[in-house]
Amino acid sequence: MNLRYDKKGVTIEAREDFPTNNGGLCAKGWTSAELISHRERLTAPLIKNRDGEFEEASWVEAIKHIAARTEALQNEFGNDSISVFGSGSLTNEKAYLLGKFARVALKTSNIDYNGRFCMSSAAAAANRSLGIDRGLPFPVEDVRHADTILLAGSNPAETMPVFMSYFRAPLRPGGRLIVIDPRKTATAAQATLHLQNRPGTDLVVANGILHVLIRDHMIDAKYIEERTEDFEQVRSSVSVYWPEQVERITGVPEPDIELAAKMLGTVRKPMILTGRGIEQQSQGVNNVNAFINIALALGSVGKRRAGWGCITGQGNGQGAREHGLKTDQLPGYRSIYDPEARAHMANIWGVEEADIPKGGRSAYELLDSLGTADGPRAMFIVGSNVAVSAPNALNVVKKLKALDLLVVSDFFMSETAELADVILPSAMWAEETGTMTNLEGRVVLRNQGGDAPGFAQSDLQMICQMAAALGYAEKFNYSSAEEVFDELREASRGGKADYSAITYERLDAENGVFWPAPANAPEGQPRLFAIEFPTPSGKAKFFAARHKDIAEMPDAEYPLYLTTGRVAAQYQSGTQTRRVASLNARAALPLAELHPTTARKLALRDGELVKAISRRGTSEFHIKVSTSARLDTVFVPFHWGGMQSVNRLTNPALDPVSRMPEFKACAVRIESISAPQSADRSQRKNANV
Ligand SMILES: Nc1nc2c(c(=O)[nH]1)N[C@H]1C(S)=C(S)[C@@H](COP(=O)(O)OP(=O)(O)OC[C@H]3O[C@@H](n4cnc5c(=O)[nH]c(N)nc54)[C@H](O)[C@@H]3O)O[C@H]1N2
Ligand SMILES: Nc1nc2c(c(=O)[nH]1)N[C@H]1C(S)=C(S)[C@@H](COP(=O)(O)OP(=O)(O)OC[C@H]3O[C@@H](n4cnc5c(=O)[nH]c(N)nc54)[C@H](O)[C@@H]3O)O[C@H]1N2
Ligand SMILES: [Mo]
C-alpha cells in the first residue's frame, strides 16, 4: 500500500500490483491510518513519580534515569537481573537490534518475546520435521490452486480476510475445504466439511485421518521411502486410532473422518494449513507434527501447490522469530548454543564469544519469574501488552508490579504501559523505515511516510540511546534502518534464514525477496523442499505421538471448556483497535459464545452479564447465545483488559518443547451475576452437557 499525507490526515491507497494481497486489506488495515494521527498518541517520555503519576520528561532525562537504575541493579544482582520482552510487531531491524541490545549492552540471557505465544509450536514442529521454519514454504499464490485444503485451528474469515480469497478454488466445483474447529466459525460455515472436535483433541483427529489413509492405501509409498524417515513409528502409533475410537475421543463422527481422508487422499494437490487453534496447546508441537505427518504421507511436501504450511500471525511474526528475539536464538535462525554460531556473532558484534549469554527463560516463564528471588528485577518491553495478552494475566500483572524497574515502549497507553516506571513514546509503522518478512517468507520494505508526533521516535533510536547511556555507543552507532539491515544481512550469512543477498535496493525494485537468499543463490527461494530437506540427512522426519489430555480437563466444579481467540474487528490486546470508532462499533465488548442448550440449562439469556470463573481468576462477559458453539465449550475473544480480559482465566500450562501456553483450552464455570448460586448448582448438575 501507499500512504498519502494531506491536511485531512493520512490516507491509505491500495497497491493492486503487489502480489501477496493484490491491493486487498482487512478492516483493521483500512482504518489503521486513523491511529497515526490519533489524539491519544504518546508524544513524550513519561516517568512515574512517587505518587504514582506520570510526568513528562525529556529523552535525555528518561534515558539517564533508566540507565542509572539499570546499572545499580546490575551491580547488585548481576546481568541476568535485567530482562527484555520483544515482539513480532517489530520490524526485522528492530527485532535484530533489540536482540543485540540484550546480548551485547545488557549481557542478559533473559530475553524472549510474544512470538512465543504465537507461532512457537508450529516453528518447533517444522524445525524438527522439515529442518526449517518458514511459515508457508511456498508462495500464497499456491493456495489458490490446491485441490483440497485442510485448515486445522484457523479462522481466516475473521483473522485474515484477504487470505480467504485464496480459498476460492476449493470452494469451486471439485475443490474442497475441510475445517477443524470446535466452533462453527465464519470460515467453517464456508467449508465443504467441518470437523467440530472437542477442544484439545486435534492430534486424535489427525492420527485418525492418517489411519484411514494408510488403511486404504492412499499414501505415497515411493515418496515416503525416498524422501522421509521414521514412517514405521508413525504407522504403528496411528494404528490404534481407528475411526470409532477417534469419534469417541473427539466427538467427530466416524464417517466424517473417513470422508476427510478421502478428500485429501484422492486428489493431486492436497494442502494442509495450521493455525493457533491446534498450536496454542500444551501438546501444540505434537499436534502440528501430526498434521505434517499427513502431508508427508501424502507425498505433498515440496510438490507445487500442495504441502503443509502454518498461517502467520503478527505483522512480522515470521521475521521477528529469525533474528534473535527468542531466548535460545542468534540472528539468521541460529542456535545460541552452537559454538560456530556464537563465534560468528562474536565476530560481527566485536565481543568475546564467552561474553554472549546462553539461553534464558521462555516468555511465560520469564514473566512468571519477575521480582522473585532468582528472577529479574527489571524489564524492558517493546511492542507487547502482556498485561492483557499473556496467559494467567492476574499473575503476570502481579509479577510486573514486583519489579524495581519496568520500561515500556509503545505508541499508546496500554494496560502494560500503565504499570511502567518509564514509558518511551514510539513512532508508528508509517513513521519509520524498516523491513518485515511476510507469511510466505517474502522480505518486504516499508518506507517512512511521515514524521512521528511530538517527541516520539523510532525504537531503533531509543535502543541506540539506551545502549550509549550504558557505555556501548560505538557498537550501536547507525545512521539509518538500512545500516542496521546491512549488519543483519552479515549476521544472517550462512544461517538458515540467510538474508545476505537481500538489499534495500532490491526490495524496492523486486516486490520483496524470498529468503533464504544466500550469496550463491541470491534470487531467493519462493518454494522450498523441491529436491531435499535442510535436515542433516536431507530427508523429512515423521514424528509419532500419542494423545494426551489438555492440562486442565473440565470437572464437576469447572464443567465447561474455555477456548479463546479473535474477532474480525479487534486486534490482539486491543491497544490500537479499541481506539478506532468504526471497529468498536462492530465489536465493543467480548462476548462469551455459548450453545443455546447449554445456556438454557444454566438459565442464562442472550446478552446477560455473567461471571466466568477458572482456577486462576474471574472475568465478566456478556453471553452470546449461538449454535456455532459446542455444548461443552465457551469461546471468548481476548482483545480486552480489566474484568473483560479472558486471560485472567487461561491456563499457563506449557508445551514441553515450544514452551507455548495452553491459550486454547482450560476449564471454567459460568455464573449468572444476578443469581450466582442457582446457576452454579444447575451447572454442576449438568457437568456432562
Ligand atoms: N481480526 C484479527 N485478525 C488477526 C489477529 C487479531 O487479533 N484480530 N491477530 C493476528 C495474529 S497475531 C494471529 S496469531 C492470527 C491468528 O489467527 P487464527 O489462528 O485464525 O486465530 P484464533 O482465533 O486465535 O484461532 C483460530 C481458531 O482456533 C479455534 N480453536 C480453539 N480451540 C481449538 C482446538 O482445540 N482445536 C482446533 N482445531 N481449533 C481450536 C478457535 O475456535 C478459532 O476459530 O490472527 C492474526 N489476525
Ligand atoms: N487468550 C489468548 N491470549 C492470546 C492469544 C490467544 O489466542 N488467546 N494469542 C496470542 C498471540 S498469537 C499473540 S501474537 C499475542 C499478542 O499480544 P501482544 O503481544 O500484547 O500484542 P499486541 O496487542 O499487538 O501488543 C503490541 C503492543 O505494542 C504496541 N506496538 C505495536 N508495534 C509497536 C512497535 O513497533 N514499537 C513499539 N514500541 N510498540 C509497538 C501496540 O500499541 C501494543 O500496545 O497474544 C497472545 N495472547
Ligand atoms: Mo499471534
Structure overview:
- With 689 residues, this protein is an alpha/beta fold.
- The chain folds into 4 domains: 1-37, no CATH class; 42-113 and 316-478, 3-Layer(aba) Sandwich (Rossmann fold), CATH 3.40.50.740; 120-310, Dimethylsulfoxide Reductase, domain 2; 560-686, Barwin-like endoglucanases, CATH 2.40.40.20.
- It contains 25 helices and 29 strands.
- The strands form 8 sheets. A 7-stranded mixed β-sheet has the order 4-3-17-16-15-5-6, with helices on one face. A 6-stranded mixed β-sheet has the order 23-25-24-29-22-26. Strands 9-8-7-11-12 form a 5-stranded parallel β-sheet.
- Helix 8 (202-215) packs antiparallel against helix 11 (243-250) and helix 17 crosses helix 19 (393-401).
- The model is unreliable at 676-689 (pLDDT under 50).
- It binds ligand MGD (2 copies) and molybdenum atom.
- Residues 118, 313-314 line the site of molybdenum atom.
- Residues 87-90, 114, 117-118, 276, 280, 313-314, 382-386, 389, 409-412, 414, 426, 459, 564-565, 572-573, 575-576, 638, 646-647, 650, 663 line the site of one ligand MGD.
Largest sheet: 7 strands, mixed
Bound molecules: ligand MGD, molybdenum atom
Shape: globular
Lateral strand order in the biggest sheet: 4-3-17-16-15-5-6
